[in-house]
């Protein structure tokens, strides 16, 4: 498998992870004020997932442009 294909496969997994983090944040927001103390942890998880996804998308674009 090429580097490009490996990166695309990793992006697919990261995208699913980010989507799940987004849904967890959405679910938490609908349940408020229940579990309000977990807002920061759930938000950090979503932030980290999307930051990692953005980094890998950038890596793929750089790879495709080289």
Automatic annotation (TrEMBL):
Residues 4-66 form a coiled coil. Keywords: Coiled coil, Nitrogen fixation. It holds the Pfam family Rop-like. It comes from the Bacteria. Belongs to the UPF0437 family. This is Rop-like protein. It comes from Bradyrhizobium ivorense. The lineage of its organism: Bacteria, Pseudomonadati, Pseudomonadota, Alphaproteobacteria, Hyphomicrobiales.
């Amino acid at each position: 498998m090429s580097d490009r294909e490996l990166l695309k496969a990793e992006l697919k997994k990261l995208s699913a992870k980010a989507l799940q983090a987004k849904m967890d944040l959405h679910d938490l927001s609908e349940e408020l004020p229940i579990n309000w103390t977990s807002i920061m942890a759930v938000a950090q998880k979503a932030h980290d997932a999307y930051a990692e996804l953005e980094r890998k998308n950038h890596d793929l674009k750089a790879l495709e442009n080289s």
